[in-house]
Every structure is written in structure tokens, then in C-alpha cells.
Amino acid sequence: MRLLTDTQLRSLKKIASEPVGGRGDGVLFFKRRGAGNIEAYYRIRLEGKATLIKIGQYKATRDGNGYTLAECRDKVRELARIPRENGCDLKSYLQEQERARQQQEENQRRELEAEACKGTLSDLIEAYLQDQERQGKESANQSRQAMKKNVIKAYPLIAAKKAKDVSPDDIVVILAAIHNRGSEAESVRIRAILHAIFNYGMKSDYDPTRVGDKRFFIQHNPVAATRKNTRANNVGERVLSHQEVKQLWDEITKAEYVGFVMSRFIRFMLATGGQRPKQLSRARWEDFDFVRHCVTLRDRKGQGREKIHVVPLSRRALDIIEEVQAVTAGYPWPFCTGVKSRSKESKGELVPIDPNSLKTAFTRYNNQLAASCEREGRTVPEWFTARDLRRTVKNLLIDAGVSREQRNLLQSHGQTGVDIKHYDRHEHLPEKRESMKRYDALLDKILKGVDVKLVDMAHYRSVVTKDEEVVL
Question: Could you tell me which InterPro entries the record lists for this protein (predicted)?
Fold first, then answer.
């Protein structure tokens, strides 16, 4: 059988073939299809039956698709060599090759799917925050804003990394930028949030209740390898003197850009024994008991749990509430504000006074106080915050002779959180009232300018009126 030529193939009507090699090696077989294309096959007898193995389309023209005649011959010679060199049946060999090819494609598909399923740092942050929000964590929104500002927007390339590939070097880059702009405390806070985020990621892959379909495959927490800035976490020691307490009480209502409600709130913090500002500002009107002269503060712990703390109200505290009542009686909270900077549907919405607004108020007061001292040639006092005010009250409680246990009760330190339905909210209220009496007696003398450190309770009880005792 002669070898075919390109001329013969181009004019092919139906079929044509040429030998591949010796006897039993089969033939190169060509067949014209109805569309005019010519297809090449390797034809061989397998198990006594003629079998066609497709090579592909014959390339009839220079610009056409398919294989040239020479390429078709090379391919069939390769197929003819397989049984001789591998000592196996060609059909079985080709089937095995096809299975291997399909398996390889499946493995590649799975690898691509697994890679696509591996979450980025941005995915991990979002999954953590959604989990926090689902649990009702109050800090979730603040954490979201902090991560958006300091990680996602500041370092998009790091945020786009697979979470498992984020290194301690990446974390240092993020934290160093915050530290270098002078925000040491913020740097420590961001480190703590990132540490919690990666701890969440290490466990979330094996949590059937996890949020989203991303997995993170994190083996080690990269934040743990970074050095913690302990200097920024030093326990504050700022305590206001009696004179500074009186000055704050007298001048906060006159401070520029510190509103009426905010100034009364700062006074209310002093009058109620230095309660936590967030809990104090979130107390609604219905939380105030004007018969028993107390207010119920709630510390939401997430997932419907809350810790409650009942604070007795002195006459001084009640007077402040009466002042703000003239302004906020129609609102949900005595101490609230409208947030003009919010966007869309929440713009101008009333909300309780938040920590940022309180921080701004203290900043304005401190700046005004510093400017006044500089004008008068006096020493500028050390800056103080709401946290320092709470610490100051604790020291005043000590000066007033209130025991450690009673101080902790009044300021809700270390009390075990339990469901409200199982808790007598007025438990320990008599002890709290007694502590508040001692404290308010000392505060009264401070605000009157009397130079005292301890309260003479025998003298106090001899002059206090019955009405005042009812109030306290």
C-alpha cells in the first residue's frame, strides 16, 4: 500500500488509508465528513475487531485547522509503538491514560476550589465581626470601624492576602504605622482585635455554626509573635484633687462647645459615684425609679445576657435629672444627642451619649482650662479623662471611709453577671445607700470649698434631715 500525498487527501471523496509500519501495526485512516472536513484515525484490530482511534482533523490548507499529514503520521506511529514498548493492550492503555487525565483535571479543579475557598485577611475580619454582631457584642461596631480604617483601607495588599499567609511582619507594618502617628493606645487596641480575629480563624474552620463558606487554614497566630507595647497599657494614676473636682463641677457648664446635656451628664457621673459612662448614658427614663430614688444600669454581655446594677440616687443626682428632664423628657434617654454626621437614614438620629462624644467634651474642657492657665501665668494642670474621673471618685470613696467591699458594690466591680430574671436587682441596695451617703457628704464639702479629707459621720448624722435620708 502506497503512502498518501496531500494532493490525494485534498481531493479525497470518501476514505483513504496508508500503512503505519509492519504487519499488525494498523493503518493511518482518513475519512471525509459531510461538512467537507477530513478526519484522521488510527485503525487497528483489537480483540479481532477493527477499532478507530481518532487523531484529529487533517489540515488541508496552510491556514487551516488541524494536523498536517506528517503530524498525523507521527501520532499514529506513537500509538503503534505503545503496545510494543509497554507490553499492553492499546485500548486498555488509552483508557487508563484517559482516566489519569480526568483524575488530574479533577484534582486541579479541587485545588482551584480549595484555593478559592481560602479566605483572605479581609474575609477573616468580616467573618469575625459578623460573629461578634451575631452574639450581640457592643464592641463589634467599634472594631469594624477600627479594622476598616487601620487595616482594610490602610493596607489593601495585606488585607487581600490569604489569612493563612499573613506574617508577623505584616502585623508589625500595620501596628508600627499606628504607633508612629502617636496613637500608642490605639496600636495596642488594634493588636488585641487582630489577635482575637486570628484566634477566631484558627477555630472557625472546625465550627459547624461558622459564618460564611470561607475557610482559613491558619496554623499559627501571627499576632502572637509580635511584641506587645506594655507601656501604652500602664494603669492610669491620674486622680483629681478636691480643688479640681470643684473646678470641674463649677466650670463644665460654662465650657465652650460642651452642651447643656453633656455638661449635666459629667456632673451626673460625679453625683452617682463614678459609674461607667456607657452604662450611665444608656439608662432610659423607665430605668429610673423616682419612688425608691435609684436607677438600674444594664451591662449587655451578648446573646441576650445582661448584668444589672442598681445605683441609689442622692438629692444632688435627682436635681440633675430634673434639670435635663426639661430638655429630654420626650426622648428615650435623659442623656442623649442627635448625630448629625451620620449618613442616610440614621442622620440626626437620637442616640445615647457615646464615649467619643464624652471624650470630645473632656478634650474641650482640658483645652479651655489649659488656655486659661497660660493666660494667667499659672501651671497647666495634667490632662484628665472620664476614666480618671471614675478613679478619682474611687479615691473619694476611700476618703469617705467606704470599705473596699462596699466600694466595689457601688461601682459594680467584680460582680458576677447573671440573667435578670434570676437576680434581685435591689440586692445590696441598703449597703449602696450607706456608701452613697458617705460619698455625697464628702462631695458636698468639696463642692463648698471645705478643705477636708474624711467625713465626720457622727456629725453628718446629727445634722442630716429626715427628708435627705429618704432621698438617699
Answer: DNA_brk_join_enz, Integrase-like_cat_sf, Integrase_catalytic, Integrase_DNA-bd_sf, Integrase_recombinase_N, Phage_int_M, Phage_Integrase
Choosing from 183, 203, 233, the residue where a domain stops is 233
Q: Contact 30/16 with Cβ under 8 angstroms? A: yes
Domain assignment of residue 101, yes or no: no
The pLDDT value given to residue 114: 64
Q: Which of 233, 259, 289 is the last residue of a domain?
A: 233
pLDDT at 145: 92
Tell me, yes or no, whether 229 and 252 share the same domain.
no
Q: Give helix 260-271 / helix 429-447 axis angle, nearest 10°.
A: 120
Mean pLDDT across the stretch 237-260? 93
Residue 394 falls inside a structural domain: yes
What end-to-end distance do the CA atoms of the chain give, in Å?
A: 120
pTM of the model: 0.60
Q: Out of 121-135, 196-210, 317-331, which region has the weakest mean confidence (pLDDT)? A: 196-210
Domain that holds residue 223: 121-233
Tell me the β-bridge partners of 302.
305
Whether 272 and 141 map to the same domain: the answer is no
pLDDT tens string 307-365 = 889 999 999 999 999 999 999 999 999 999 865 444 445 455 788 998 889 999 999 99
Q: Answer whether 388's CB lies under 8 Å from 240's CB.
A: yes
The total of structural domains in the chain comes to 3
* 287 shares a domain with 218: no
- What digits encode the pLDDT tens for the residues 281-301? 999 999 999 999 999 998 765
Assigned domain for 115 exists: no
Answer yes or no: do 217 and 363 share one domain.
no
| Residue for grid cell 429626715 | 466
Length reported for the chain: 472
User: Which CATH number is 207's domain given?
Assistant: 1.10.150.130
Name which residue leads in pLDDT, 472 or 366.
366
Cα gap 171→179, rounded to integer Å: 12
pLDDT at 123: 93
